[in-house]
Design goal:
Elements (H helix, E strand, L loop, with lengths): L1 H25 L3 H6 L41 H14 L3 E5 L2 H9 L7 E5 L4 H10 L6 E5 L4 H6 L5 E7 L11 H10 L3 E5 L4 H4 L9 E5 L13 E5 L2 H14 L5 H11 L2 H20 L6 E3 L9 H7 L6 E5 L3 H10 L4 E2 L9 E3 L11 H6 L6 E5 L5 H12 L3
Bound molecules: pyridoxal-5'-phosphate (PLP).
Length: 406
């Protein structure tokens, strides 16, 4: 009995210590948080990384005082370290790790009930679009797609049964910018839940919870993981109350991230700042180089002063990221570039150590009709480049030879 009490006392003091640590951690800069997040040392052994707890269940010494974790779908110490890590970075109450970005996004949408309505940015990620239009519609959830860069359109979509607003900024592939604070302020007046896909910026450059967002979502497959070797999703709630609701959904659906992948993701996340800084500098140089070429029809990058969302982006983010889209004039020319490039991976996905060149018309946006694609600026000559960690001079030289003489 005394052993159990000791166990309880230990847990209480451990959680008090945890809260105190969280408080002082929260005041630190993001580069420090990326390294000192709580899971950088294993408290039991001093090991310099959190152990991979490859276990599905946990022995219960005393069933009246169960251990912190009892079954790995409900909770696993390796996953907990990752979940606390992302919550710290985003400045939210609770973090959650899922098997993929889509698992995180799908689970979050199940906070809604049948008969409710959600307002969604029209250039939402393709997988999210598919979830909304082929699955959630069957659950009798109503969806309005709007141009989120236009607050009047967002306001005009309000219905008596509207429950939530879903944002993605910058959006894919034309990097449109939503005024996060303006949307959340309006949403709060109408008691709407706000969700934001923060994949492109990561908490390193943009922390939506500080701007009033309720739930932040990530495809951690991209910049957070950073090495094109792990598929993962993360979510962070602003409040503990929302955290409890999301926890119940995570446990019910069970699409959790396994301990090995949790560890791999944390391993990648530690270098997020170094990677984001390097790639962003290169992207700025590349954007400048592309701007100087007469054979490039259009460039989409929020770091360019002429980008229509530039000022709003600057007001809500500390960086521009490293995804840049540009129009080389025609489908044939785009194909020529894709055939000729030597350095980038030609693939879907983004946010990795290697540069990734993708062709939205046949890759991420193939399901969209050509007419809708054209309306959204996804023309046949559009290429999207995720700039990696190569020497930027080499990337530019490679693109130059691939573009040829136009
Ligand atoms: C890739 C991506 C997703 C989906 O994430 P997965 O990890 O592939 O399931 C969601 N949103 C954005 C913006 C993405 O780029």
């Amino acid at each position: 009995m005394s052993g159990n009490q000791e166990h309880n006392n230990n847990q209480t003091s451990a959680s008090a210590r945890h809260t105190a640590v969280r408080g002082s951690q929260q005041a630190r800069g993001l580069d420090t948080k990326l390294i000192h997040f709580g899971g950088e040392i294993d408290r039991a052994t001093g090991a310099s990384s959190v152990p991979i707890y490859q276990a599905s269940t946990f022995h219960q010494e005393d069933i009246l005082n169960p251990p912190l974790h009892d079954y790995s779908r409900s909770g696993n110490p390796t996953r907990q370290a990752l979940e606390d890590y992302i919550a710290l970075l985003e400045g939210g109450a609770d973090g959650f790790a899922f098997a993929s970005g889509m698992a995180a996004i799908s689970t979050a949408f199940f906070l809604l009930s049948a008969g409710e309505h959600v307002i969604v940015t029209e250039d939402v990620y393709g997988g999210t679009y598919r979830l909304l239009t082929t699955i959630l519609n069957r659950m009798n959830i109503e969806i309005s797609f709007v141009d989120m860069t236009n607050l009047e359109q967002v306001k005009g979509a309000l219905r008596p049964n509207t429950r939530a607003v879903y944002m993605e900024t910058p959006s894919n592939p034309t990097l449109k910018i939503t005024d996060i604070h303006a949307v959340t302020e309006w949403a709060r007046e109408h008691h709407l839940l706000t969700l934001l896909d923060n994949t492109f910026m990561t908490p390193y450059y943009q922390r939506p919870i500080e701007l009033g967002v309720d739930i932040v979502l990530h495809s951690a497959t991209k910049f957070l993981g950073g090495h094109s070797d792990v598929l993962a999703g993360l979510a962070v709630t602003r409040t503990e109350q929302l955290g409890k609701q999301l926890k119940q959904l995570q446990n019910s659906f069970g699409s959790v991230l396994g301990p090995q992948d949790c560890w791999l993701l944390m391993r990648g996340m530690k270098t997020l700042g170094a990677r984001m800084n390097h790639s962003e500098k290169s992207t700025a140089k590349l954007a400048e180089w592309l701007s100087g070429r007469s054979d490039i029809q259009r460039i989409y990058y929020p770091g360019l002063p002429e980008h229509p969302g530039h000022e709003i982006h600057v007001s809500q983010s500390t960086g521009f990221g490293s995804v840049i889209s540009f129009d080389v004039g025609s489908g044939e020319r785009a194909k020529q570039v894709l055939d000729r490039v030597q350095l980038p991976l030609v693939a879907v996905s983004l946010g990795a150590v290697e540069s990734i060149l993708s062709y939205p018309p046949t890759m991420s946006h193939a399901a969209m009709g050509a007419g809708v694609r054209a309306e959204r600026g996804i023309t046949d000559g559009l290429l999207r480049l995720s700039v990696g960690l190569e020497d930027v001079e080499d990337l530019i030289a490679d693109l130059e030879q691939a573009l040829g003489n136009g």
